């Protein structure tokens, strides 16, 4: 039977060590800032500028092949671009945040203990193998999910404040976003963390663990990033130009 107090004590120890590691804390702030503030603000400011659709891979095909009814009627071309990118195109990237955070925090879960070295001390504690693995997984899952939830709150306020005047009122979040944030994000974070912790336990150095963890989560990232161009298989909107060659 798992003792929650022992697991919680292990998690607090690892969180304390993580908070003292500036090399880990800086990426934890930069990654959400990029996806939550920088990119959506640039989209709202640039709007229908040709540079936006040409510089973002798959965006033009995504816009050309939006199914009927997913964008509110009566929007101009500029407003359609802004609404589509904020509500649909950027959604999968919120699944990348927990994967990237897990790759930073979970890659040092066991190999970090070996390098310090503190793994022997942990093995002499009353922690069972299940409690040790569970604690190492939850240490990364909880921050990943909480950071994404906080980022979602910031994103909601930001896009509504900046884009609501253009789109005629508050338009975000949608129910699909609620499901993504509350259901898919924890599942993706847990899956990525379990894979990376398993790699960390078999690695001999931090560099080896981080390199191997990138290879492990790369298929997950590729699947997420590949979703926006996947709209090329959808039925084009009737008022859209001819389908592009993104497919």
UniProtKB/TrEMBL annotation:
The keyword Cytoplasm does not apply. The chain crosses the membrane at residues 25-46, 85-112, 175-199, 211-231. The keyword Aminoacyl-tRNA synthetase does not apply. Keywords: Membrane, Transmembrane, Transmembrane helix. It holds the Pfam family ABC2_membrane_2. This is ABC transporter permease subunit. It comes from Georgenia halotolerans.
């Amino acid at each position: 039977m798992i003792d929650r107090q022992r697991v919680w004590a292990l998690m607090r120890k690892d969180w304390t060590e993580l908070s003292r590691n500036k090399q880990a804390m800086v990426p934890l702030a930069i990654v959400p800032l990029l996806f939550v503030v920088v990119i959506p603000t640039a989209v709202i400011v640039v709007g229908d500028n040709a540079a936006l659709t040409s510089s973002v891979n798959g965006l033009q095909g995504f816009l050309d092949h939006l199914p009927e009814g997913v964008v509110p009627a009566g929007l101009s071309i500029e407003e359609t671009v802004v609404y589509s990118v904020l509500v649909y195109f950027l959604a999968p990237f919120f699944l990348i945040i927990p994967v990237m955070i897990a790759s930073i925090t979970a890659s040092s879960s066991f190999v970090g203990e070996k390098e310090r070295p503190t793994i022997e001390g942990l093995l002499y504690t009353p922690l069972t193998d299940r409690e040790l693995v569970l604690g190492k997984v939850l240490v990364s899952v909880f921050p990943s999910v909480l950071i994404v939830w906080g980022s979602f709150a910031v994103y909601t306020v930001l896009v509504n404040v900046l884009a609501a005047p253009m789109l005629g009122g508050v338009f975000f979040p949608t129910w699909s976003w609620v499901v993504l944030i509350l259901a898919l994000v924890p599942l993706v974070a847990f899956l990525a963390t379990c894979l990376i912790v398993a790699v960390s336990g078999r690695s001999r150095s931090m560099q080896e663990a981080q390199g191997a963890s990138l290879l492990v989560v790369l298929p997950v990232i590729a699947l997420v990033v590949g979703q926006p161009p996947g709209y090329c298989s959808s039925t084009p909107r009737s008022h859209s130009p001819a389908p592009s060659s993104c497919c």
